[in-house]
Amino acid sequence: MSVLVMKFGGTSVATLDRIHRAAKRVAVEVAKGHEVIVIVSAMAGKTNELVGWVNETSPMYDAREYDAVTSSGENVTAGLMALRLQEMDVPARSWQGWQVPVQTTSAHGAARILDIPPENIRAKFAEGMKVAVIAGFQGVSPEGRITTLGRGGSDTTAVAFAAAFEAERCDIYTDVDGIYTTDPRICEKARKLDRIAFEEMLELASLGAKVLQTRSVELAMRYKVKLRVLSSFEEQSDEAGTLVCDEEEIMESNVVAGVAYSRDEAKMTLISVADRPGIASAIFGALADAGVNVDMIVQNISEEGRTDMTFSCPNDQVMRAEKAVEAARERGDIRFNDLVTDTGVAKVSVVGIGMRSHTGVAADMFKALSAEGVNIKVITTSEIKISVLIDRKYMELAVQALHDAFGLDKAA
Ligand code: ADP
Ligand code: ASP
Ligand code: MG
Q: Which residue ranges does UniProt annotate as crossing the membrane (predicted)?
């Protein structure tokens, strides 16, 4: 019998009524003859609330306890979904990550899935169970502690189950009806894509488009999972939503496929550090040890053997970063005159595999931003993306201007 994976995000299980509607959709697939693995997120807003409680209790928290708390939201929805299905006479049971078990690394708060042995669930399917409801976002470490997979991690749970069970398809049900050229909530001209290449989706996700967690796209690409994003709010056909697929399966595409943004970034500058071998290593080694995710890095031209070093990181890691850098200074590993922190920046990026063969995308991007009077603070590029750091108050404006400049409202 073929296995189908259906994942329901936070807004799709936000109330008992929404869970009921999601369960009806699952029942339709069971009636078509599928065995279904349902992955659920916590109810909308629940994980944010739990994260808030942790931060309020312990700002420099023990990540193992962060996971113990934040994983709990999914346990509630998994149980409720199984109960709702049973009420509809669909044989179902819930599983928490450790029960499956979803085996992960010990990197608490950002664990990676190592393996999902399918035997336990297969045995239940063989006994007549039709739906396995899995609490997304969570797993168990080799030490036997509960782990979580990073924000948005239920997407990754879904794709990992689809790979482990060789599912026919992995459907990600969410609050938008597919993947758009940019976030439809901040750009009304955003256009829904029928298909998007894995590599483009991977970049968009890692640059902030939260519709899919980055790691879920990586896994889908590696294990050739047929991955689809669609709305849980509308009636759906088998063709609905957006398919994430290989580049070769897409006929025409724009040079720029999409625009992504990341709202809560911070820029930090160490003023006047020594310009000699080992300094970058001392700074970024200390930040890495403290678990800070450094993104962009810029080093100024040096004057009289001293330079300024600028980097960006998520806003909520600023305190960790400041502590790490100060501790390195106290140990005598680095010296600097001042540490300047700007917590009011955002990152805006354009992404497209067409950039490999087209020149001038950066020039067009900078022109569009300057026409709106948006000042660029930091720039980084790779083969298929260009990112800029700008003042957060211009973020929406920048996204809309770039969407217009690259004609993304029209198909190629
Ligand atoms: P879920 O709770 O279902 O996992 P998320 O909030 O994590 O949903 O992701 C869906 C949201 O992603 C949408 O509501 C939308 O605002 C946002 N988003 C950002 N970029 C895009 C994009 N390019 N296409 C579609 N949605 C996007
Ligand atoms: N509930 C978790 C979060 O909000 C995981 C998820 O929804 O994918 O990040
Ligand atoms: Mg999500």
A: none
- What is the distance in A from the centroid of ligand 2 to the CA of 366? 34
User: Which of the ligands is closest to the CA of residue 211?
Assistant: 1
* 364 Cβ inside 6 Å of ligand 1: no
Is 289 labeled as ligand-binding? Answer: no
* CA-213 nearest atom, ligand 1: 7
292 and 312 in contact (C-beta within 8 Å)?
A: no
Buried b (16+ CB within 10 A) or exposed e, 354-366: bbeeeeebeebbe
Nearest to 408 by CA among 359, 342, 361, 357: 361
Distance 205 CA to ligand 2 centre (A): 15
What pLDDT is recorded for position 250? 87
- Say whether 35 sits in a helix, a strand or coil: strand
185 is in an annotated binding site: yes
Cis peptide before 101 (omega within 30 of 0): yes
323 is in an annotated binding site: no
- Enter the tokens of residue 127: 């006994």
Whole-number pLDDT of residue 411:
85
- C-alpha to C-alpha distance for 108 and 140, rounded to whole angstroms: 10
- Would the annotation count 211 as a binding residue? yes
Q: Which residues are found with C-beta within 5 Å of the ion, ligand 3?
A: 9, 152
Question: Residue 73 C-alpha to ligand 3 middle, in angstroms?
Answer: 14
> Whole-model pTM?
0.94
DSSP structural state of residue 303: B
How many CB atoms are closer than 10 A to CB 185? Answer: 11
Best CA proximity match to 315, nearest among 291, 342, 338, 336 = 342
pLDDT at 378: 95
Residue having the nearest C-alpha atom to atom 6 of ligand 2: 152
Q: What is the rounded distance in angstroms from the CA atom of residue 240 to the CA atom of residue 179? A: 11
Written as one string, the DSSP assignment of 284-302 is HHHHHHTT-----EEEPPP
Which pLDDT score, from 0 to 100, does residue 302 have?
86
- Which residues in the chain land under pLDDT 70? none
Condensed to tens digits (0 to 9), the pLDDT of residues 266-281 reads 999 999 999 989 999 9
> What is the spatial order of strands in the sheet that 306-314 belongs to?
297-299, 306-314, 258-274, 338-351, 385-391, 378-382
What pLDDT is attached to residue 327?
96
To test the ligand 2 pocket, which listed residue (12, 38, 41) has its Cβ within 8 A of the most ligand atoms? 41
